[in-house]
Specification:
Chain A is mainly alpha-helical. Chain A is built from 29 helices and 3 strands.
Chain lengths: ~675, ~675
């Protein structure tokens, strides 16, 4: 049994490229005047320039890969081909390029690059090397296994296209997660908050332990029949459980959007996927932190277990608090300058990530909650142009990062040099993932249905079971550390799980929807008309939710945004002066207009904008028409107000339907309803 | 005379931070099972985590600096305070933080980080170190001077806030330059193309040599009186001349926009500033490439000179061709999917940079011409939403990069450790910069006025002289290499030149404008009415410009965009079938509408959108109204058509003025002219 502590994946393209920039300039910049070294310098300069060019060319390959993906996506969308999502496509292209790089191209590497070995007694981060009187600074890149030392020369090409795993976690993942938080459909999300939290927290932990236990059984079996090539501890199994429990919101939901699937199912799946990413990342870091004292680091110990649990709670709540705090702090008043506003918004989101990392929390989790808070409060303070700009900016960043991750996933299947594909482990993992998902969805749905008025029907449950794809987060967590045998086996298996779920489950979503007889093409207008006439909206008004909702609506919103009722109306009479100075002047104007923004939804272009009239309407007719609707807002604290508010978009639609017969006001007349609806349809298609 | 080949500036925050990510994960990922090393590992892990946190905190400082800048900019704009531009402000904040970092904070650095020295005989790019049986990989970071070796320990803090100079050149500069190219005001730019090219090419070269010669005289003087602490060759003087000849378009033009200064002056200054950046960067690299054969590398040699000239021409034209080619290639047909379109556009721009670098050309120059080509052709093919999105995206990137560079400039005045401030050199440099600018503007203007119908008046010349600020490009070129004494002196002096010009010239622009009696607040409507009635537009219709213009309009535009006349109308009759298959179907429709896009201008928000009616109008009234104007387009090749076209926006405005009395069509009625103009005014203010 050999420990192949190899870190070829530590070498990476970007830093390598950039460090070569540095190298190149460092070499250019010491034009030693001594005549004997001048010639030598020119040679090294040439070499550095050469490798800079090579690196630019390598990066160009990635960009062309992305370009190709975009063009093919366009073709697919154009032809309404739904069996393969863009992420699946990106993976296929990545696979192809990986095959080419692995088998077709063989670049003879420059032997001069890597030659020296010197014996010292420690491995500091920075090393000073004395070369015949001159000092050179070196930085540590990572450990290399003995077997790799000779190998390094051959793999120059593969090493170059291998990114640092931390790039995924610290650069590519944050925009994806932030965008997910920023684009949560808020009305349906809050309606189903209880269920979503249950699935995300309880469900993910259950799934993690079920998978961990099953995999431990599998590993035991492998050890019995001698199929195991290295150590594999129970903590490793749990770690595997935690990383494959993170489901990906991207693929299925894109199809859901296109087909206009039931909004509650959408909210359940999206909310669960987004939140369980956060749970999984904190869970996995708590599992890593499990370190019992004493000699054997892999025995069970209650104290260490408790400590891990404490870390989970601490890191999660810390990241949560930080994200929410930064989201709330971004209270912009820069409405007149959209560029400044957008820049500020972007910088605040990024600083959330850095702040969380600096405090020792998890940046990704903080960014998620920051996005949600900003969508809930800050978004309402932004000028309409900034709302559009921030939405589009994060959409673009998300799109690029996502496609990059998925195509890189395909690439690593061939370029990663330390794959450990173990058939028994793979079969066991697929089974465990399936059972883990089942143990998450079905029992929880049963329990939740006991409390829900609007039950989660069996076909919804089957759909949620089927739609548990694994994606970017699972990949980023598993590639983060591939040093030990156990981790390498996990990484290889995880790749296969991701491929399978994205291609098979992602591709089969349309079939599954029709098979489960789930309504597609739901005309959300009609659904809303129904709810106005008294059917739904009360489905999940649990008491804690109502309390929070009222608190949010009456105190937080007026305090943090320009919308909602003025604080003077909601504060007790004794706090009048305080309330008056805290309320923004705009809130008084808004009181008349009922411009509450609970239906201001931040949606993807591909989302069903039709349902949520507020943004559209206020853009179209400058809000004047809404003044004819003095409902609600008197009984601020009552449940009725909440219901009315949740159904706000619905009222809106009714009014919009009847407004055409009203006498026109002198402002710009609205577009005919048909043409407007047509425009929305077009947007939905894109 | 000692050679202080120091490279403390090579160390950098980002790569250091990221390499520490790598380091951290590398250390986390080799949990050597041997019990004796477990403890050691945990300690190193802790250390790595600690420094990761520290790095996040450092980066956070930069982000907060930017945030502070944005908030202050907002305050200034809000209060209409014009004496200090945002870039000047960013520099001041940078200076303050630099002072604090230098004098107030002293972080005792971890002595364990940098300890080892081992004697080897070469300095390879990658070093393998054998530490008691384990191999570690190290990468070369740069050379360190003997005197710096002990110093390294103390400067940990300053080293951390010092970025790699190549970051500026390869990451921060490209978006700025691209944005400049993408937002050139095209109509006035093309009208003044000849003059702009003369200023940019002839002027920059003249300025470079004048400054170089003056500085050589200054250096000779210093050598005589013993004030020179190191070598300073004539090539160094020329290099200095080339880097300080690059003028910055940002600061003055922002003020020009706000005050609505004469559009021709604007076009001259902006065009010159943008293009001379490109000239300066290629010029400086050609000067570095000047390497005479033989022993003394600093004698004059005709062959080497010719070779440098050849490099200049080769690199410039290569970068130009590449940029234009990629710009033309981006021929999108993805109009229905703005997100895909924007992503594609962004990736193509980036790949231009990489492609140019991979081919050995200058990426920055390629990106500039790519931006200009995309603005001229590709922009017309984009969907309206993508036009908006790309504009906003690059505007944001430009804004962030620019403010970052300027605040970093302020920072380096205190954190850079190898400043060489030589009073004589500094005085000489200021004088040389002044005279170099004068030798560029006045003689050239005189010569150009001989050929121009619409003369460049003396007060315009004085204004151009005054507005020659130095900015981001000068800084990036000078910080790129600070290894020798000469380069360090240049860098320090350049910093002062930039500070002076940005604060004094930038801040005094308003005063200078009123002092030179240059019309501000030009109502571009009125100006256009005048030109319609026959006054201007012919001012610079040199024959080569007319030929190119006609070729572009009749063949390139129809071929590459959906606008312009169909090729069937412009090709000779014999090429009919070919023309038919090359013309896009939309071009035929457009023929009726006269939807030529020479007045489709890509402007900053702060630009004077009023002049260029096309975008606005086609958005407002869906183009239907323009069909009542069947002028031109029959005599396609005549000069009259060209003039009419250049004045297209003007016709447009006349028609817009009269359209209000026409019977309304059944589409959405246009806003009243007053309210529309009011809206524009608001945009212009922002």
């Amino acid at each position: 049994l050999t420990h192949t502590n190899s870190v070829p994946d530590r070498s990476n393209l970007i830093w390598r490229r950039l460090s070569l920039f540095v190298l190149a300039s460092a070499l250019c910049s010491c034009p030693c005047r001594a005549e004997d070294s001048a010639m030598e310098n020119i040679v090294t300069e040439k070499k550095a320039e050469e490798s800079h060019r090579q690196d630019s060319a390598d990066l160009l390959v990635f960009i062309l890969l992305l370009t190709l993906t975009i063009l093919t996506i366009w073709l697919f969308k154009h032809r309404r081909f739904r069996f393969l999502h863009e992420t699946g496509l990106a993976m296929i292209y990545g696979l192809l390029v990986g095959v080419v790089l692995r088998y077709a191209i063989h670049v003879p590497s420059d032997m001069n690059n890597i030659t020296l070995s010197c014996n010292v007694n420690a491995s500091p981060a920075t090393l000073l090397v004395n070369v015949s009187g001159k000092f050179y600074e070196y930085t540590l890149k990572g450990e290399i296994s003995g077997s790799e030392v000779n190998d390094i020369q051959d793999n120059e090409m593969l090493r170059k296209v291998t990114f640092d795993p931390e790039v995924f976690f610290n650069i590519l993942l944050p925009p994806i997660i932030f965008h997910a938080g920023y684009s949560l459909k808020r009305r349906h999300f809050f309606r189903n908050l209880g269920s979503i939290l249950a699935y995300a927290f309880v469900g993910t932990v259950v799934s993690c332990f079920i998978i961990g236990l099953l995999m431990y059984g599998c590993v035991m079996l492998m050890k019995q029949i001698g199929h195991l090539g290295g150590d594999f501890f129970f903590t490793d199994c749990l770690f595997f459980g935690s990383i494959v429990s993170a489901t990906d919101p991207v693929t299925v939901l894109a199809i859901f959007n296109e087909l206009q699937v039931d909004a509650d199912l959408y909210a359940l799946l999206f909310g669960e996927s987004v939140l369980n990413d956060a749970v999984a990342v904190v869970l996995s870091s708590s599992i890593i932190a499990y370190q019992p004292e004493g000699d054997n680091t892999h025995t069970f110990e209650a104290m260490a277990m408790l400590k891990s649990f404490g870390i989970f709670l601490g890191v999660f709540s810390g990241s949560f608090a930080l994200g929410v705090a930064t989201g709330v702090v971004t209270f912009t008043k820069l409405r007149d300058f959209p560029l400044l506003e957008t820049a500020l918004f972007f910088l605040m989101s990024w600083s959330t990530f850095l702040l969380a990392e600096a405090c020792g929390f998890t940046g990704v989790v903080a960014v998620l909650f920051c996005g949600m808070t900003q969508a809930h409060y800050t978004f309402n303070n932004l000028s309409p142009e900034s709302q559009e700009r921030t939405k589009q900016l994060f959409e673009l960043l998300n799109f690029l990062a996502e496609n990059f991750i998925f195509s890189y996933m395909g690439l690593t299947l061939f370029t990663f040099k330390n794959h450990v594909f173990n058939p028994i482990f793979i079969v066991g993992a697929f089974l465990a993932v399936f059972l883990g998902r089942a143990a998450n969805i079905y029992p929880l749905s049963f329990l939740l249905n006991l409390g829900r008025k609007h039950k989660i029907s069996p076909n919804f449950q089957h759909m949620m079971m089927f739609a548990g794809l694994r994606g970017a987060m699972t990949f980023a967590l598993s590639i983060r550390d591939t040093a030990t045998y156990a981790r390498q086996m996990m990484f290889s298996t995880t790749l296969l799980v991701v491929f399978f779920t994205v291609w098979i489950c992602g591709g089969g979503t349309t079939q599954m929807l029709s098979c489960q007889k789930i309504r597609v093409g739901v005309d959300t207008d009609q659904e809303n008309f129904v709810s106005v006439f008294g059917l739904s909206t009360k489905q999940e008004s649990a008491w804690f939710f109502r309390i929070w909702y009222n608190f949010d609506h009456n105190y937080l919103k007026p305090l943090l945004t320009h919308s909602g009722p003025p604080l003077t109306a909601t504060f007790p009479a004794c706090c009048g002066p305080l309330a008056r100075c805290l309320t923004s002047p705009q809130a008084y104007e808004n009181e008349e207009q009922l411009k509450d923004s609970d239906s201001d939804l931040i949606l993807n272009d591909s989302d069903i904008t039709l349902t949520y009239g507020d943004i559209t309407v206020s853009t179209d007719a400058t809000g004047a028409h809404t003044s004819g609707m003095p409902v609600g807002r008197v009984a601020v604290n009552s449940d009725e107000a909440l219901d009315r508010e949740l159904a706000f978009g619905d009222h809106e639609l009714v009014i919009r339907g009847t407004r055409l017969v009203l006498p026109m006001d002198d402002s710009e007349p609205p577009l005919p309803l048909d043409s407007r609806r047509h425009r929305h349809k077009n947007e939905t298609m894109s």
